[in-house]
Write a structure and sequence with these properties.
- The structure is a single chain.
- The protein has seven helices and eight strands; from the N terminus they run ααααβββαββαβββα.
- By secondary structure, it is of the alpha+beta class.
- The relative contact order is 0.13.
């Protein structure tokens, strides 16, 4: 009987020891220890590919998460948190493996975001000359300098992250910077540098125009995000 008890005990111990450890919970060092080396252009494309291939869960939540991630990557944590809260998602939380950040939507679905969306890897290759060459090629393909650029009036709606909509009328060749200045005037001269414009899941740069490279068309609804506390402060003055 003692032998049977010993054998049974050893079996239990061996069975417990054989249970695999959840790799996602393991402490495996920094998130980018084994991240493949790539240029900044390649990293940008990898990020774009991630967002373009999100087919699970709710598409609108993925688009909002993209906005939030870009804000956080630019150091604007307040706007990031405001976007997450507005979507009804749980706060972003880092996994134990340090490789991902995740949250849950109001239906309990999990959204996992790899760390390279938030940070540049330490082995990033700064091939500035190559990147500039690629950018120039893309610009040559997109822009036909010989053709006249349209400059018709466009009427669209800007949805603010404070729960308001603004009807906007601009020319196709007006810049996103000019759009931000207009919004600033409507928001008690809110700091232009804190306003971010998002259309079709993309954050638009100041030097983009209403028509290029991501056209805003009549009847479109685009989004403007900024720290809500700034607007509240202005209202209180």
């Amino acid at each position: 009987k003692n032998f049977e008890f010993f054998t049974l005990s050893m079996g239990i111990l061996c069975s417990c020891a054989s249970i695999p450890r959840d790799l996602d919970d393991a402490d495996v060092g920094d998130w980018d220890d084994h991240f493949p080396a790539m240029s900044r252009t390649a990293l940008r494309r990898k990020r774009e590919e991630f967002w373009d291939t999100r087919n699970s869960n709710v598409r609108e939540v993925w688009m909002g998460l993209k906005q939030a991630v870009e804000c956080r990557r630019d150091g604007d944590n307040e706007t990031c948190e405001a976007i997450i809260e507005a979507m009804g998602c749980t706060p972003l939380k880092q996994s134990r493996s340090k490789k991902n950040i995740f949250c849950y939507d109001d239906h309990g679905s999990k959204y996992t975001l790899p760390m390279y969306l938030f940070k540049d890897p330490k082995n990033l290759l700064e091939n500035k000359g190559l990147e500039q060459k690629e950018v120039n090629i893309e610009e040559d393909i997109i822009e036909d300098e010989g053709a006249p650029k349209p400059n018709e009036e466009v009427v669209f709606k800007v949805r603010l992250n404070i729960g308001k909509d603004l009807d906007v009328k601009m020319k196709q060749q007006d810049s996103i910077q000019e759009l931000k200045r207009y919004l600033s005037q409507q928001l008690n001269d809110l700091d232009v540098t804190r306003i971010r414009i998002i259309a079709r899941g993309r954050m638009l740069s100041n030097d983009y125009t209403i028509n290029e490279p991501f056209p805003i068309k009549n009847g479109d609804i685009i989004h403007a995000s900024f720290p809500a506390s700034l607007y509240k402060d202005m209202e209180g003055q």
